[in-house]
Design brief:
425 residues; mainly beta; 7-stranded mixed β-sheet; 6-stranded mixed β-sheet
């Protein structure tokens, strides 16, 4: 399995200690002092991140393990300071929960920090960026928009390459888009990606009574009998159903999904309720992936709260393209990550995608992520990862721990906020 990580994730380290507020600082201010009593500049309310995916450390040390990463251009709050040292000639700034940044890696600011929920965005289609595919003629990417079509390109992008466009400018009557990786591409060579509107269902109560269609046309029967003929109106693919009644056994099980409307259990995907893993604490959140039904259910303790369809790895257990069974924990969460040798059987036409959205790795390079290049959920399809619709990936990203603070692009767990439990069965 070949993937390139957008950010390096390091081993967990010891917990850091926050700074101490100045005794004479007014309530609600951001005025802090160092442990040694050296005052922090008055009036500073935030720190402006000057590079994208700026690493944040677990401790105020140059060799500390990674805690997460921050988005370039955002203002993060300053909660405390520590003296600099080896690897940091200035002060260490506490900019989030157990998250330290050397002062010379950012700019002090009197402006207000980014408000909670200010980033990443939450668009209605579930995609944090605007995504495009390179058309069949390929295209060229340039380091600066001034060079576009007038100088040697930085890269050649083949058909099927996908990228996130975060800015557009016009030059000579032509429109050019800047990718999140800083390259400028002619918009005339790009085709917009269209995300599916499919999303899972919230589960009410303790009963897991939801099912999903995954066939192009799911037959509906007037009664639960093998001799019954289907009605004239089959159900379309990727539709949520409430199971009102179940009857039959073996291969002849039927679900009633409406008045006089029955579907065969073999024609739909219905997740089975499962007890929490043995490692789960009482009431702890966890996620269940059922390979047989290609479904995912999010739980709080024994109670299911959300269910949806997924696409898992198509390989046999033990191979590189399988979604590995067992109990895991999410070890890093990334708003986006670049992947090649794509998580899909159509890798020949889509060989690489930049900024795949809402990635949560739980078994080395296997994890959850949003998928906008196919909508074949409910079927085995990927090269190992658990593919979700963008809306489901966004929901799951918000549901699981560790929480991503506003303005961060990635976060690693801590002792106080471990990664969510994931069981694949």
């Amino acid at each position: 399995m070949s993937r390139r990580f957008a950010r390096a994730a390091l081993a967990l380290a010891a917990l850091s200690t926050p700074g101490r507020a100045s005794a004479d600082a007014p309530e609600g201010s951001m005025r802090w002092v160092q442990t040694g009593g050296v005052p922090f500049p008055a009036g500073v309310k935030s720190v402006l991140i000057t590079r994208d995916d700026q690493p944040l450390a677990r401790e105020p040390r140059g060799d500390a393990a990674r805690r997460g990463s921050a988005l370039g251009g955002v203002a993060l709050p300053v909660y405390g300071v520590r003296p600099g040292g080896v690897g940091c000639p200035g002060r260490w700034l506490l900019v989030g929960p157990q998250a330290w940044l050397c002062q010379n890696q950012a700019q002090l600011s009197a402006g207000e920090p980014l408000a909670p929920g200010g980033w990443p965005p939450r668009p209605p289609d579930g995609l944090p960026f605007r995504y495009y595919f390179v058309g069949k003629g390929g295209t060229q990417a340039y380091a600066r928009v001034e060079f576009a079509d007038d100088a040697a390109p930085e890269r050649e992008l083949e058909p099927g390459f996908a990228l996130a466009i975060v800015e557009e400018r016009t030059k000579g009557g032509q429109s050019y888009g800047r990718s999140r990786r800083g390259l400028w591409v002619p918009m005339r060579d790009l085709l917009p990606a269209r995300a599916t509107s499919f999303r899972g269902e919230a589960v009410e109560g303790d009963k897991l009574d939801v099912a999903f269609t995954y066939l192009d046309k799911t037959p509906v029967y007037p009664r639960p009998e093998p001799s019954a003929r289907p009605t004239a109106a089959p159900l379309k693919r990727l539709r949520s159903l409430r199971v009102l009644e179940e009857t039959g056994r073996g291969g002849g099980v039927y679900y009633r999904v409406g008045e006089g409307e029955w579907v065969r259990a073999a024609d739909v995907r219905r997740p089975l309720k499962a007890p929490p893993p043995a490692d789960a604490l009482p009431g702890e959140k966890w996620v269940d992936v059922e390979l047989a039904t290609q479904t995912l259910v999010a739980y709080e303790g024994p109670r299911p709260v959300y269910a949806t369809l997924v696409s898992t790895g198509r390989g046999a257990q033990g191979t590189d393209t399988a979604t590995p069974r067992g109990v895991h924990r999410v070890w890093v969460k990334l708003v986006s990550s670049t992947m090649d040798n794509l998580e899909d059987e159509d890798a020949a036409s889509h060989y690489a995608i930049e900024d795949v959205p809402y990635v949560q790795f739980f078994a080395k390079a296997v994890g959850f992520h949003g998928t906008f290049w196919h909508d074949g959920f409910g079927r085995v399809r990927s090269h190992g990862c658990v593919n979700l619709s963008p809306l489901d990936a966004q929901w799951l990203f918000d549901f699981t721990g560790p929480r991503l603070p506003a303005g961060w692009t990635g976060v690693l767990p801590t002792e106080f906020e471990p990664g969510v439990l994931v069981r694949v069965r």
